[in-house]
Design a protein that fits this description.
With 326 residues, the chain is α+β, with helices and mostly antiparallel strands. 15% of the residues lie in helices and 28% in strands. A hairpin with a 2-residue loop joins strand 15 and strand 16. Helix 2 packs parallel to helix 4.
Length: 326
């Protein structure tokens, strides 16, 4: 199956069918191929974002590869991301003489590796043209980072395709709803401190040889946004064994259970609670209002718990949540 198949639904259709790009695929994908693709995407963003007065580049990169190559690349992805940070930092340091007033524009570099599902194709590309290409989605800052983005949902993402001879940006935007079920596993996320010194420092123990941060699940929203003060975002990492989902005016109670607020007046405070049982390693859910779990209506009740499968879809009014245990 083809990486190109995945992007037919992901990308907005291109009306100019007479100018189909041609890609020359890799026979296989190696760490060097991934590093070269990240380098090309970085330089592309640096050229697009930098002016004569300030230097700026993308610091968040999602790497999509065909699932046939996923296991091989995943095993060493942290090291590949570390290599990329070295390349990026070296390039920025070489330009510092042109920017004497330079100050860091981010606190971190973040990378995610995501395998592509089979069965879709790119608008305007033949399957044989893109069987083993690498796709990178990048942006200025990582979602939910504290630097530079007051509204993490509104920032433009850049999609680029990389084959063994070239890189090209997809000129149209993409339909982010297609990505709602594609959440990187914790082991495929690498975060490093943004610094122009000679040390590449992992953030939050993201090194594969260090103890991982205890993320239990990821929750992604479509049809709306999560809200925390003035900040909006679309993906939340559940780390506490209990979580309540509420409307935009929800608040944490005396029991200290975190509350994830949806930017909506139609959702109760609180509406849903999710809990993780460490002994059985299973999740459960209850609701105080109308909600559906995997298209099935839940029975409201504070003591009415149902098992929550590790990959589930939860609907509240016109809000859809994708739940994925880590």
């Amino acid at each position: 199956m083809s990486i190109g198949d995945f992007f037919k639904k992901l990308l907005a259709p291109d009306n100019d069918t007479n100018t189909e790009p041609k890609l020359e695929s890799y026979n296989t994908i190696t760490r060097q191929n991934v590093l070269d693709s990240l380098r090309a995407a970085f330089h592309h963003s640096l050229n697009e974002e930098t002016t004569t007065e300030s230097m700026l580049c993308h610091t968040f990169y999602k790497v999509y590869i065909q699932e046939d190559f996923y296991e091989k690349i995943s095993a060493s992805f942290h090291k590949t991301a570390e290599d990329a940070v070295k390349v990026f930092t070296r390039t920025l340091k070489n330009k510092l003489s042109n920017y004497p007033d330079f100050t860091p524009f981010s606190t971190r570099w973040e990378f995610q590796l995501i395998p592509l599902a089979n069965g879709q194709r790119i608008q305007g590309l033949e399957n044989s043209d893109c069987d083993s290409c690498i796709a990178i989605v990048s942006r200025l800052w990582a979602p939910n980072s504290s630097v530079g983005e007051e509204d993490s949902c509104g920032e433009r993402e850049v999609v680029t395709f990389h084959d063994k001879n070239s890189m090209r940006e997809i000129p149209k935007g993409f339909n982010s709803a297609i990505l709602q079920g594609l959440i990187a596993a914790e082991k495929d996320k690498a975060i490093f401190r943004f610094s122009l010194d000679d040390t590449v420092a992992p953030v939050n123990n993201t090194s594969p040889t260090s103890k991982q941060t205890s993320a239990l699940a990821a929750i992604k929203i479509t049809g709306g946004t999560f809200i925390d003060g003035n900040r909006t975002f679309t993906t939340y990492t559940m780390k506490h064994p209990s979580l309540r989902i509420a409307g935009k005016n929800g608040s944490t109670g005396n029991d200290g259970i975190p509350v994830l607020c949806v930017n909506s007046d139609k959702i109760l405070n609180h509406h849903i609670e999710i809990a993780f049982d460490s002994s059985s390693k299973k999740f459960k859910i209850n609701t105080l209002g109308e909600a559906r779990l995997n298209e099935r209506k839940l029975t409201p009740g504070i003591d009415t718990w149902e098992q929550l499968p590790k990959h589930s879809y939860i609907s509240i009014d016109d809000i859809d949540l994708t739940f994925k245990a880590q």
